[in-house]
Amino acid sequence: MAGSGTKFTERPRILCMVHLPPPVNGVTVMGEQVVHSARIRDRFRLSVLPLRSSASIADIGRLRPGKALRIATQALGLAWRCLLQRPALVYFTLTPNGKAFYRDLLYVGIMRLLGVRRLYHLHGKGISKSLNGPVSRVLYRLAFARSEVILLSPLLYDDASVVLKRSQCHFLANGIADPWSGNGKPSVPGNGVPRILFFSNLVVSKGLFVLLEALALLKENGVPFRASFAGAWESPAVEAEFNRIAAERGLDRLIEMCGPRYGDDKRHTFAAADIMAFPTHNDAYPVVVLEAMSHGLPVVSTYEGAIPDMIQDGVTGFLVPTQNPHLVADRLALLLNDADLRDRMGRAGRQRYLEGFTSTVFEANLTAIFEACCR
Protein backbone atom coordinates (compact mmCIF):
# COMPACT_ATOMS: atom_id res chain seq x y z
CA MET A 1 0.00 0.00 0.00
CA ALA A 2 2.76 2.39 0.88
CA GLY A 3 4.35 1.96 -2.53
CA SER A 4 1.10 2.31 -4.49
CA GLY A 5 0.05 5.53 -2.81
CA THR A 6 -3.21 3.94 -1.65
CA LYS A 7 -4.28 5.02 1.85
CA PHE A 8 -6.59 3.52 4.41
CA THR A 9 -9.80 5.57 4.78
CA GLU A 10 -9.09 5.60 8.51
CA ARG A 11 -5.82 4.94 10.22
CA PRO A 12 -5.94 1.35 11.54
CA ARG A 13 -5.66 0.93 15.28
CA ILE A 14 -2.84 -1.26 16.53
CA LEU A 15 -2.67 -2.39 20.13
CA CYS A 16 1.02 -2.53 21.06
CA MET A 17 1.68 -4.90 23.94
CA VAL A 18 5.42 -4.34 24.28
CA HIS A 19 8.19 -4.47 26.84
CA LEU A 20 9.25 -0.96 27.88
CA PRO A 21 11.88 0.30 30.37
CA PRO A 22 12.59 -0.34 33.14
CA PRO A 23 14.76 -2.32 32.98
CA VAL A 24 16.85 -1.05 30.08
CA ASN A 25 17.91 -3.78 27.66
CA GLY A 26 17.78 -4.39 23.92
CA VAL A 27 14.16 -5.53 23.95
CA THR A 28 12.87 -2.54 25.92
CA VAL A 29 14.96 -0.08 23.88
CA MET A 30 13.41 -1.38 20.65
CA GLY A 31 9.92 -1.38 22.18
CA GLU A 32 10.30 2.25 23.21
CA GLN A 33 11.45 3.17 19.70
CA VAL A 34 8.37 1.56 18.14
CA VAL A 35 5.77 3.24 20.34
CA HIS A 36 7.40 6.68 20.00
CA SER A 37 8.00 6.51 16.25
CA ALA A 38 6.46 9.54 14.52
CA ARG A 39 6.48 7.66 11.23
CA ILE A 40 4.48 4.74 12.61
CA ARG A 41 2.10 7.00 14.55
CA ASP A 42 1.44 9.02 11.42
CA ARG A 43 0.24 5.87 9.68
CA PHE A 44 -1.52 4.05 12.55
CA ARG A 45 -3.38 4.80 15.74
CA LEU A 46 -1.30 3.16 18.45
CA SER A 47 -2.73 2.05 21.76
CA VAL A 48 0.14 1.10 24.08
CA LEU A 49 -0.12 -1.51 26.82
CA PRO A 50 3.33 -1.62 28.48
CA LEU A 51 4.77 -4.91 29.71
CA ARG A 52 6.79 -4.27 32.86
CA SER A 53 6.88 -7.39 35.00
CA SER A 54 10.49 -6.80 36.14
CA ALA A 55 11.80 -3.60 37.67
CA SER A 56 15.51 -4.37 37.23
CA ILE A 57 17.92 -6.74 35.50
CA ALA A 58 18.35 -8.71 38.73
CA ASP A 59 14.56 -9.12 38.94
CA ILE A 60 14.20 -10.81 35.53
CA GLY A 61 13.17 -14.45 35.86
CA ARG A 62 12.40 -14.24 39.58
CA LEU A 63 9.01 -14.95 41.09
CA ARG A 64 7.78 -12.14 43.32
CA PRO A 65 4.28 -11.43 44.70
CA GLY A 66 4.07 -8.08 42.91
CA LYS A 67 4.66 -9.72 39.55
CA ALA A 68 1.49 -11.80 39.76
CA LEU A 69 -0.57 -8.65 40.36
CA ARG A 70 1.08 -6.86 37.43
CA ILE A 71 0.47 -9.83 35.13
CA ALA A 72 -3.20 -10.01 36.14
CA THR A 73 -3.59 -6.26 35.62
CA GLN A 74 -2.00 -6.49 32.18
CA ALA A 75 -4.23 -9.43 31.22
CA LEU A 76 -7.35 -7.50 32.22
CA GLY A 77 -6.08 -4.43 30.37
CA LEU A 78 -5.52 -6.52 27.25
CA ALA A 79 -9.03 -7.98 27.34
CA TRP A 80 -10.62 -4.59 28.00
CA ARG A 81 -8.79 -2.84 25.16
CA CYS A 82 -9.50 -5.64 22.69
CA LEU A 83 -13.22 -5.48 23.52
CA LEU A 84 -13.46 -1.70 23.66
CA GLN A 85 -11.11 -0.65 20.86
CA ARG A 86 -11.39 -3.64 18.48
CA PRO A 87 -7.86 -3.15 17.12
CA ALA A 88 -7.04 -4.21 13.58
CA LEU A 89 -3.93 -5.87 14.98
CA VAL A 90 -2.26 -6.72 18.28
CA TYR A 91 1.51 -6.26 18.09
CA PHE A 92 3.00 -8.34 20.89
CA THR A 93 6.66 -8.81 21.88
CA LEU A 94 6.15 -12.40 22.96
CA THR A 95 8.99 -14.05 24.88
CA PRO A 96 9.82 -17.29 23.04
CA ASN A 97 11.37 -19.29 25.87
CA GLY A 98 11.58 -19.91 29.59
CA LYS A 99 9.01 -19.15 32.26
CA ALA A 100 8.08 -15.91 30.52
CA PHE A 101 6.71 -17.85 27.54
CA TYR A 102 4.21 -19.63 29.78
CA ARG A 103 3.24 -16.28 31.31
CA ASP A 104 2.71 -14.93 27.81
CA LEU A 105 0.41 -17.86 27.01
CA LEU A 106 -2.17 -16.13 29.22
CA TYR A 107 -2.09 -13.09 26.93
CA VAL A 108 -2.12 -15.27 23.81
CA GLY A 109 -5.17 -17.13 25.13
CA ILE A 110 -7.05 -13.86 25.59
CA MET A 111 -6.15 -12.74 22.06
CA ARG A 112 -7.27 -16.05 20.56
CA LEU A 113 -10.49 -16.07 22.59
CA LEU A 114 -11.38 -12.56 21.41
CA GLY A 115 -10.44 -13.30 17.81
CA VAL A 116 -7.94 -10.47 17.26
CA ARG A 117 -5.20 -10.65 14.64
CA ARG A 118 -1.81 -11.29 16.21
CA LEU A 119 1.64 -10.17 15.15
CA TYR A 120 4.40 -11.44 17.43
CA HIS A 121 7.82 -9.77 17.42
CA LEU A 122 10.38 -12.26 18.73
CA HIS A 123 13.46 -10.55 20.15
CA GLY A 124 14.93 -13.79 21.48
CA LYS A 125 15.48 -17.39 20.50
CA GLY A 126 15.42 -20.80 22.17
CA ILE A 127 12.17 -22.31 20.89
CA SER A 128 13.82 -25.52 19.68
CA LYS A 129 15.47 -26.10 23.07
CA SER A 130 12.17 -25.45 24.86
CA LEU A 131 10.31 -28.25 23.04
CA ASN A 132 11.20 -30.91 25.58
CA GLY A 133 7.99 -32.94 25.62
CA PRO A 134 4.57 -33.43 24.02
CA VAL A 135 2.88 -30.85 26.27
CA SER A 136 5.33 -28.08 25.38
CA ARG A 137 5.00 -28.90 21.68
CA VAL A 138 1.21 -28.60 21.85
CA LEU A 139 1.38 -25.31 23.75
CA TYR A 140 3.90 -23.77 21.35
CA ARG A 141 1.87 -24.83 18.32
CA LEU A 142 -1.30 -23.38 19.86
CA ALA A 143 0.50 -20.11 20.63
CA PHE A 144 1.77 -19.65 17.09
CA ALA A 145 -1.18 -21.07 15.14
CA ARG A 146 -2.84 -18.53 12.80
CA SER A 147 -0.42 -15.79 13.84
CA GLU A 148 2.15 -13.75 11.96
CA VAL A 149 5.63 -13.45 13.37
CA ILE A 150 8.54 -11.03 13.04
CA LEU A 151 11.95 -12.70 13.29
CA LEU A 152 15.06 -10.58 13.53
CA SER A 153 16.88 -12.49 10.81
CA PRO A 154 16.53 -15.50 8.49
CA LEU A 155 19.41 -16.96 10.53
CA LEU A 156 16.95 -17.40 13.40
CA TYR A 157 14.29 -19.27 11.43
CA ASP A 158 15.67 -22.77 12.04
CA ASP A 159 15.21 -22.27 15.78
CA ALA A 160 11.48 -21.64 15.26
CA SER A 161 10.81 -23.85 12.24
CA VAL A 162 9.30 -26.67 14.31
CA VAL A 163 6.31 -24.47 15.19
CA LEU A 164 6.39 -21.83 12.42
CA LYS A 165 5.84 -22.02 8.70
CA ARG A 166 8.07 -19.71 6.72
CA SER A 167 4.94 -18.15 5.19
CA GLN A 168 4.03 -16.85 8.66
CA CYS A 169 7.31 -14.98 9.00
CA HIS A 170 8.47 -11.45 8.35
CA PHE A 171 12.18 -10.69 8.75
CA LEU A 172 13.12 -7.36 10.29
CA ALA A 173 16.59 -6.31 11.40
CA ASN A 174 16.86 -4.01 14.39
CA GLY A 175 17.76 -0.39 13.76
CA ILE A 176 18.69 2.45 16.09
CA ALA A 177 18.95 6.24 16.01
CA ASP A 178 22.25 7.77 14.92
CA PRO A 179 24.06 8.88 18.10
CA TRP A 180 26.05 11.45 16.11
CA SER A 181 23.01 13.03 14.46
CA GLY A 182 22.99 16.78 15.06
CA ASN A 183 25.96 16.74 17.44
CA GLY A 184 28.70 14.82 15.70
CA LYS A 185 31.09 12.52 17.50
CA PRO A 186 31.95 13.71 21.04
CA SER A 187 35.58 14.71 21.51
CA VAL A 188 37.15 12.73 24.34
CA PRO A 189 40.88 13.03 25.11
CA GLY A 190 42.72 9.72 25.30
CA ASN A 191 45.89 8.66 27.10
CA GLY A 192 47.46 6.76 24.22
CA VAL A 193 46.55 3.29 25.51
CA PRO A 194 43.69 1.71 23.52
CA ARG A 195 40.49 1.15 25.51
CA ILE A 196 38.27 -1.93 25.21
CA LEU A 197 34.59 -1.44 26.02
CA PHE A 198 32.09 -4.01 27.26
CA PHE A 199 28.73 -2.23 27.18
CA SER A 200 25.91 -4.46 28.37
CA ASN A 201 24.17 -5.52 31.50
CA LEU A 202 26.83 -7.48 33.39
CA VAL A 203 25.35 -10.91 32.80
CA VAL A 204 27.29 -14.18 32.60
CA SER A 205 25.64 -15.24 29.33
CA LYS A 206 26.87 -12.05 27.63
CA GLY A 207 30.43 -13.38 27.86
CA LEU A 208 31.40 -11.39 30.94
CA PHE A 209 33.86 -13.98 32.28
CA VAL A 210 35.03 -14.97 28.80
CA LEU A 211 36.18 -11.39 28.27
CA LEU A 212 37.73 -11.23 31.74
CA GLU A 213 39.85 -14.30 30.92
CA ALA A 214 40.77 -12.80 27.53
CA LEU A 215 41.94 -9.62 29.28
CA ALA A 216 44.07 -11.70 31.64
CA LEU A 217 45.69 -13.38 28.62
CA LEU A 218 46.41 -9.99 27.04
CA LYS A 219 48.06 -8.83 30.25
CA GLU A 220 50.17 -11.99 30.47
CA ASN A 221 51.31 -11.44 26.87
CA GLY A 222 52.29 -7.83 27.56
CA VAL A 223 49.68 -6.22 25.29
CA PRO A 224 48.86 -2.70 26.59
CA PHE A 225 45.16 -1.93 27.10
CA ARG A 226 42.56 -0.42 29.36
CA ALA A 227 39.03 -1.79 29.68
CA SER A 228 35.69 -0.31 30.68
CA PHE A 229 32.65 -2.32 31.75
CA ALA A 230 29.38 -0.38 31.64
CA GLY A 231 26.10 -1.90 32.79
CA ALA A 232 24.05 -3.16 35.71
CA TRP A 233 25.08 -6.31 37.56
CA GLU A 234 23.07 -9.49 37.08
CA SER A 235 23.39 -10.25 40.80
CA PRO A 236 25.63 -9.51 43.81
CA ALA A 237 27.11 -13.01 43.45
CA VAL A 238 28.24 -12.32 39.87
CA GLU A 239 29.72 -8.99 40.95
CA ALA A 240 31.67 -10.61 43.80
CA GLU A 241 33.02 -13.38 41.56
CA PHE A 242 34.05 -10.89 38.87
CA ASN A 243 35.89 -8.70 41.38
CA ARG A 244 37.61 -11.73 42.92
CA ILE A 245 38.94 -12.98 39.58
CA ALA A 246 39.97 -9.48 38.47
CA ALA A 247 41.99 -9.02 41.66
CA GLU A 248 43.58 -12.48 41.45
CA ARG A 249 44.65 -11.94 37.83
CA GLY A 250 45.98 -8.45 38.51
CA LEU A 251 43.38 -6.75 36.31
CA ASP A 252 41.79 -4.44 38.85
CA ARG A 253 44.09 -1.53 37.92
CA LEU A 254 43.40 -2.00 34.20
CA ILE A 255 39.61 -2.17 34.47
CA GLU A 256 37.12 0.63 35.08
CA MET A 257 33.64 -0.30 36.28
CA CYS A 258 31.33 2.44 35.00
CA GLY A 259 27.89 1.27 36.11
CA PRO A 260 24.85 1.85 33.87
CA ARG A 261 25.27 4.72 31.41
CA TYR A 262 22.50 6.62 29.63
CA GLY A 263 22.12 9.69 27.42
CA ASP A 264 25.22 11.87 27.06
CA ASP A 265 27.14 9.69 29.54
CA LYS A 266 26.54 6.73 27.24
CA ARG A 267 27.67 8.66 24.15
CA HIS A 268 30.87 9.75 25.88
CA THR A 269 31.56 6.21 27.10
CA PHE A 270 31.44 4.93 23.53
CA ALA A 271 33.45 7.91 22.28
CA ALA A 272 36.21 7.18 24.80
CA ALA A 273 36.55 3.57 23.58
CA ASP A 274 38.64 2.19 20.73
CA ILE A 275 37.23 -1.36 20.51
CA MET A 276 33.97 -3.02 21.49
CA ALA A 277 34.23 -6.55 22.94
CA PHE A 278 31.06 -8.59 23.27
CA PRO A 279 31.80 -12.36 23.41
CA THR A 280 28.20 -13.34 24.15
CA HIS A 281 27.09 -16.96 24.16
CA ASN A 282 23.32 -16.41 24.38
CA ASP A 283 21.85 -13.74 22.13
CA ALA A 284 19.58 -13.31 19.14
CA TYR A 285 20.26 -9.82 17.77
CA PRO A 286 22.06 -7.68 20.37
CA VAL A 287 21.36 -3.98 19.93
CA VAL A 288 24.66 -3.11 21.57
CA VAL A 289 26.53 -4.38 18.49
CA LEU A 290 24.64 -1.85 16.37
CA GLU A 291 25.38 0.85 18.94
CA ALA A 292 29.10 0.12 18.69
CA MET A 293 28.96 0.19 14.87
CA SER A 294 27.04 3.48 14.96
CA HIS A 295 29.86 4.94 17.07
CA GLY A 296 32.48 3.76 14.59
CA LEU A 297 34.00 1.05 16.79
CA PRO A 298 35.34 -2.27 15.50
CA VAL A 299 33.59 -5.13 17.30
CA VAL A 300 34.93 -8.47 18.52
CA SER A 301 31.98 -10.79 19.05
CA THR A 302 30.77 -14.34 18.35
CA TYR A 303 28.86 -16.39 15.78
CA GLU A 304 25.85 -16.33 18.09
CA GLY A 305 22.31 -15.82 16.85
CA ALA A 306 22.14 -13.29 14.03
CA ILE A 307 25.34 -11.43 14.92
CA PRO A 308 26.90 -12.52 11.58
CA ASP A 309 24.17 -10.43 9.90
CA MET A 310 25.64 -7.35 11.57
CA ILE A 311 29.38 -7.92 11.77
CA GLN A 312 31.35 -8.76 8.66
CA ASP A 313 34.23 -10.88 9.92
CA GLY A 314 37.54 -9.28 8.99
CA VAL A 315 35.82 -6.15 7.63
CA THR A 316 33.91 -4.42 10.45
CA GLY A 317 35.33 -6.52 13.26
CA PHE A 318 36.01 -10.13 14.16
CA LEU A 319 33.78 -13.10 14.94
CA VAL A 320 34.93 -16.07 17.02
CA PRO A 321 33.23 -19.21 18.36
CA THR A 322 31.50 -18.85 21.72
CA GLN A 323 33.28 -19.62 25.00
CA ASN A 324 36.76 -19.15 23.51
CA PRO A 325 38.75 -16.55 25.48
CA HIS A 326 41.99 -17.40 23.64
CA LEU A 327 40.53 -16.41 20.26
CA VAL A 328 38.90 -13.33 21.80
CA ALA A 329 42.30 -12.30 23.15
CA ASP A 330 43.96 -13.00 19.80
CA ARG A 331 41.51 -10.79 17.86
CA LEU A 332 41.67 -8.05 20.46
CA ALA A 333 45.47 -8.10 20.26
CA LEU A 334 45.32 -7.58 16.49
CA LEU A 335 43.24 -4.46 17.01
CA LEU A 336 45.13 -3.19 20.04
CA ASN A 337 48.42 -3.36 18.15
CA ASP A 338 47.20 -1.74 14.92
CA ALA A 339 45.58 1.71 15.05
CA ASP A 340 45.08 1.75 11.28
CA LEU A 341 43.17 -1.55 11.43
CA ARG A 342 40.97 -0.18 14.22
CA ASP A 343 40.22 2.94 12.21
CA ARG A 344 39.52 1.05 8.97
CA MET A 345 37.20 -1.48 10.60
CA GLY A 346 35.45 1.20 12.65
CA ARG A 347 34.73 3.30 9.56
CA ALA A 348 33.46 0.24 7.68
CA GLY A 349 31.17 -0.64 10.58
CA ARG A 350 29.72 2.85 10.76
CA GLN A 351 29.07 2.86 7.02
CA ARG A 352 27.36 -0.52 7.28
CA TYR A 353 25.20 0.84 10.10
CA LEU A 354 24.22 3.93 8.07
CA GLU A 355 23.24 1.81 5.08
CA GLY A 356 21.06 -0.77 6.82
CA PHE A 357 20.60 -0.41 10.56
CA THR A 358 19.33 3.11 11.30
CA SER A 359 16.03 3.82 13.03
CA THR A 360 14.75 5.28 9.74
CA VAL A 361 15.28 1.96 7.94
CA PHE A 362 13.81 -0.04 10.82
CA GLU A 363 10.68 2.10 11.14
CA ALA A 364 10.04 2.09 7.39
CA ASN A 365 10.29 -1.70 7.28
CA LEU A 366 8.09 -2.17 10.36
CA THR A 367 5.50 0.20 8.89
CA ALA A 368 5.39 -1.95 5.75
CA ILE A 369 4.87 -5.08 7.86
CA PHE A 370 2.06 -3.41 9.82
CA GLU A 371 0.39 -2.38 6.56
CA ALA A 372 0.60 -5.92 5.20
CA CYS A 373 -0.88 -7.37 8.40
CA CYS A 374 -3.75 -4.84 8.49
CA ARG A 375 -4.93 -5.51 4.92
TrEMBL record:
<protein>
    <recommendedName>
        <fullName>Glycosyl transferase family 1 domain-containing protein</fullName>
    </recommendedName>
</protein>
<keyword id="KW-0808">Transferase</keyword>
<dbReference type="GO" id="GO:0016757">
    <property type="term" value="F:glycosyltransferase activity"/>
</dbReference>
<dbReference type="InterPro" id="IPR001296">
    <property type="entry name" value="Glyco_trans_1"/>
</dbReference>
<feature type="domain" description="Glycosyl transferase family 1">
    <location>
        <begin position="193"/>
        <end position="352"/>
    </location>
</feature>
<dbReference type="Pfam" id="PF00534">
    <property type="entry name" value="Glycos_transf_1"/>
</dbReference>
<keyword id="KW-0328">Glycosyltransferase</keyword>
